[in-house]
């Protein structure tokens, strides 16, 4: 190809790329499922645990405005668990997002341990992140996971990949972050309490809510043990 | 050299050759520049963007003679160009400015390579690489650089002013409960990564590029940034002491940047001045 014709070809390709970029914006197709209403979806009473509203309002997450509902649940023995669900209807920049463990040191707590784990639920297993933080003589274990569109992501690259795939498919990119945390005076040996609470929570949720909070894809049946 | 040369081009022909490509480039990157100018360059941490862009354009114009060789050249250029376009499409459509801005060196480099051959691409590499400084740093990278720097600067200010009447005005990097809390005005430090970028460009542009000088200047990047940060923090402490917390909060970011730039520049010129005579003694033949 002669350089002159090549230049014309390149100009055409650039014009095409600009148009394709406009055509591939997320949100051109409707949501596959109605938007989750946090307040209505999350039950106030979970199998003997009573929930109390701590906060419900708009927060900034990854540069985008989102809705966050935080509730504290207590059982009859006075044990408490903090449940915080954040929902952002438009994915911010994956590279701007702060993971919960990034926030811990900024909040003045000490990050003891971050591990990746799988949460076993009836019929599925969800990839979660376990964070152990310490503040003074208290320990603050946290279990969290993030779903982008319909998949659970861990780490920035996974987030970026899910965001791009979901966005290119044309659907709005909804981000949901679920955190379950508690406070202990001694370093807990495990996160069994969180798993128990999440199992109870999931049992109370309607099927659509479960799929939205846990992601229908990338979840596998738990291996037989 | 890859590709056949089709003889020297006159300026008119060169413009004719590049006219369609420049028009296409404008369609791609004018919206990107608009986004950068309205969302990114207004942040202290990325305020160096327009200056770097001007430097890159200037450096490219100094090298325009290499574009006189017209190559019917290698397929690599076209591949680089098309790969860059792919990155652009993903970045632009999904609002990932990092990818969108990051595609510019690939697209432009691919164009130079495909139209003028590998030698032209090598000659144009420095201005193309300068465009990398236009890519906005992700927040977590910026935090990783700035959090320790702020803490060190605040710590040094606290130590220096301990026991004096200025102690109360010294900025803190942490609130009483230990959480990260920035004193008003401390965000002015955010322009330091930009200063470091300009420092790197200064090393490249400063001649002669003697090994000793480049090494010393590179090694001084971090200490100079720290020095500027400490000087800035001390100035901020005195400012808050005499004019009050509110004035510190209202401190103009432009003024902060100017103060940091001055300190860094003076330190740099000083270090460069110290290194230069040694260069000449090492290379007595160089005029």
Question: What would you say this structure looks like, in words?
Answer:
- The complex is a heterodimer of chains A (225) and B (287).
- Chain A is 29% helix and 36% strand.
- Chain A contains six helices and nine strands; from the N terminus they run ααββββαββββαβαα.
- In chain A, strands 1, 2, 3, 4, 5, 6, 7, 8 and 9 form a nine-stranded antiparallel β-sheet that branches.
- In chain A, strand 2 and strand 3 form a beta hairpin.
- By secondary structure, chain B is mainly alpha-helical.
- A two-stranded antiparallel sheet of chain B has the order 1-2.
- In chain B, helix 3 runs antiparallel to helix 4, helix 7 packs antiparallel against helix 8 and helix 8 packs antiparallel against helix 10.
- The interface between A and B is large, with 40 and 43 residues.
Largest interface by Cβ-Cβ < 8 Å: A-B, 40 and 43 residues
Radius of gyration of chain A: 21 Å
How far the N terminus sits from the C terminus of chain B, by CA atoms, comes to: 33 Å
Number of strands of chain A: 9
Instruction: Let me know the largest β-sheet of chain B.
Output: 2 strands, antiparallel
Mean pLDDT of chain B, to the nearest integer, reads 78
Spans of chain B with pLDDT under 50 lasting ≥5 residues?
1-7, 279-287
Number of helices of chain A: 6
Number of helices of chain B: 10
Strand content of chain B: under 5%
Shape of chain A: elongated
Taken as a percent bin, the fraction of beta residues of chain A is 35-45%
